[in-house]
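Summary for the steering committee. One of the milestones for this cycle was to obtain a three-dimensional model of the protein with 1-O-phosphono-alpha-D-glucopyranose bound, which we needed before selecting residues for the alanine scan. The sequence and ligand used are listed below.
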Amino acid sequence: MIQSHPRISKAVIPAAGLGTRFLPATKATPKEMLPVVDKPAIQYVVEEAVAAGLDDVLMVTGRNKRPLEDHFDRNYELESALEKKGDADRLAKVQESSDLATIHYVRQGDPRGLGHAVLCAAPHVGDEPFAVLLGDDLIDPRDPLLRRMIEVQEQHGGSVVALMEVAPEQIHLYGSAAVETTEDSDVVRVSGLVEKPEAADAPSNYAIIGRYVLDPAVFGVLRQTEPGRGGEIQLTDALQQLAADEKIGGPVHGVVFKGRRYDTGDRGDYLRAIVRLACEREDLGPEFRTWLRRYVTEEMQER
Ligand code: G1P
């Protein structure tokens, strides 16, 4: 009998972080709600999941995250005000986020790390492969990474991580993967993983960027995973277990991403992401680029 793979339909988005790097903005506002141009960062991530065919989204949230639920819910008051005004464009913008996907929420309670956040998704996900998207990484919709990862998972089974080559001095910010080539130039076999190693100890310059397609066996492993780096339960450590013993949940592969990725995790990167995205927007871009060019040539020379 031919075994048919269940279609991957669930996306898990961990969103319980405190966002301390953005204080005071994140004192009362979740960092996921910070606008990237004119859309909250989290909306780009949900849109990416939906574009990859994942229409069941679980957000793992924590305290102070109510604005997230409100953002993806209807806002009748605002909608009727815009309707009365006949402002169809803005009405569409308001409705966009609530029409995107079915969104579920679970609370993490204790913030015990990314691995623990993913474990909180176990009852919702059940026994099927699923995707994890981290909100600090925005992937340009023109470079569909997640769809390719799902394809690779369907081909090989097991789990798939997104990898990107970074400069050696950057690798300590990421999970780093030991890899072997495969017959597909954009796919590698992952033989080991280390969470945020020093450059000298890194198995390679392949960094995990925040996209994963995981075999549900990861839940069993996470339950046994001791706190690792930073005293937190690390998803990377659980994936290392899977990579080391294929019998647990199949192989681990990596899709090497060469497309456009915007990091919104720290303030400098966040500013760069906004400038890059604003420059590329059809509506804002032309005027903004003209201003930016002038600003760089004239104003910056005076400093
Ligand atoms: C997490 C993961 C790390 C990964 C990174 C990607 O770290 O633990 O392995 O490389 O996301 O953004 P964080 O940035 O949440 O500390």
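Key point for the committee: The mean pLDDT is 93.
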